[in-house]
Amino acid sequence: MQATASAHLHRDHHLFSSSFLLRSPKPRRPPATAVRMSLREDGPSVAVVGVTGAVGQEFLSVLSDRDFPYRSIKMLASRRSAGKKLSFEDREYVVEELRPESFDGVDIALFSAGGSISKDMAPAAVERGAIVVDNSSAFRMVPEVPLVIPEVNPEAMAHIRLKGRSGKGALIANPNCSTIICLMAATPLHRHAKVVRMVVSTYQAASGAGAAAMEELELQTREVLDGKQPTCKIFRQQYAFNLFSHNAPVQANGYNEEEMKLVKETRKIWNDTDVKVTATCIRVPVMRAHAESVNLQFEKPLDEDTARQILKEAAGVVVIDDRASNHFPTPLEVSNKDDVAVGRIRQDFSQDGNLGLDIFVCGDQIRKGAALNAIQIAELLLQ
């Protein structure tokens, strides 16, 4: 039995290996007859901070997939990674050590290097005239810093554009991955009937903790199947074939930081300090893409058929809601996909008068939950 399971794991290794995250991305190429337009003299100069990490690599993949125009691009990382070579869009780049002067002449800086580095380096980039799109939690709750999901609240950054800025820098925050995935589905319904209370339970993949966590999950899976003691360096307990409360620090109120991000960020993005939000965030042994169960209570009635139609028409959302075949969103189906998938759309019969709905949401944490959302923000800057 164990040998069979191990053989299956070896056979399917390519399906969930995280090692690709540490190599240069292999973006989808256009047909040979197509002309790649990304490298353009009239495009902005771009810097990718934390380029060797999981999200940094995904930044490059999304930039290429969406033909984001740039006249130059800098690959920035820690001193440890400096000197490494990366291939991107048929050109070879040398990773440079991140320094304040790295941002001289940079128009857009995409940050995904952790909160402490963002707190130190993002202001330096802004001082040098760069518009920073930061993927960390460092600035999300700073009142004057826009916290943006382009499909949800683009108006929050309407005052920030590359054109006509006269070299002035700015800072825009990318929301937490679980918040983005949740609000992509909840916001279209909120616009129609106004959410007054939201209860969220998340099932979060290893990708949310970075490439090292993904590697550890793979390693642990092999070790457990081989009857060995699992290696627990990233998390304090066994991750393979297990689940546990999200590893973010627990606060005095009993909620961990991940759960409170959902509460605080939702209120800021929706510009509604009165909306009631509660969350329970769980790590599950899934390699990539988060899932969330969301219960919504509305101010006005909203039936499930109307909700389903609203979601079908929502930008960046795909509905997978086949009750007959019990087919609903799964993390595997949305991995490496841009859209957030929604299903299990049903009336909450514990609430009278069609004032409640349950939905189930899945989204790629690295893609829409991080890199894609940041690139979409950068695209708004070009308008």
From TrEMBL:
CDD domains per the UniProt record, alphabetical: ASADH_C_bac_euk_like, VcASADH2_like_N
Keyword annotations: Amino-acid biosynthesis, Diaminopimelate biosynthesis, Lysine biosynthesis, Methionine biosynthesis, NADP, Oxidoreductase, Threonine biosynthesis
Semialdehyde dehydrogenase NAD-binding domain segment(s): 45-160
EC identifiers of the protein: 1.2.1.11
Superkingdom as given in the UniProt entry: Eukaryota
Catalytic activity: L-aspartate 4-semialdehyde + phosphate + NADP(+) = 4-phospho-L-aspartate + NADPH + H(+)
InterPro entries registered for this protein in UniProt: Asp_semialdehyde_DH, Asp_semialdehyde_DH_beta, NAD(P)-bd_dom_sf, Semialdehyde_DH_NAD-bd, Semialdhyde_DH_dimer_dom
A GO BP annotation: isoleucine biosynthetic process
Pfam families tied to this protein: Semialdhyde_dh, Semialdhyde_dhC
UniProt pathway annotation: Amino-acid biosynthesis; L-threonine biosynthesis; L-threonine from L-aspartate: step 2/5; Amino-acid biosynthesis; L-methionine biosynthesis via de novo pathway; L-homoserine from L-aspartate: step 2/3
Any GO molecular function: protein dimerization activity
Active site: 177, 290
Record note on quaternary structure: Homodimer.
Protein family: Belongs to the aspartate-semialdehyde dehydrogenase family.
Annotated PANTHER family: ASPARTATE-SEMIALDEHYDE DEHYDROGENASE, DEHYDROGENASE, PUTATIVE-RELATED
Annotated protein name in UniProt: aspartate-semialdehyde dehydrogenase
Originating gene: LOC109715281
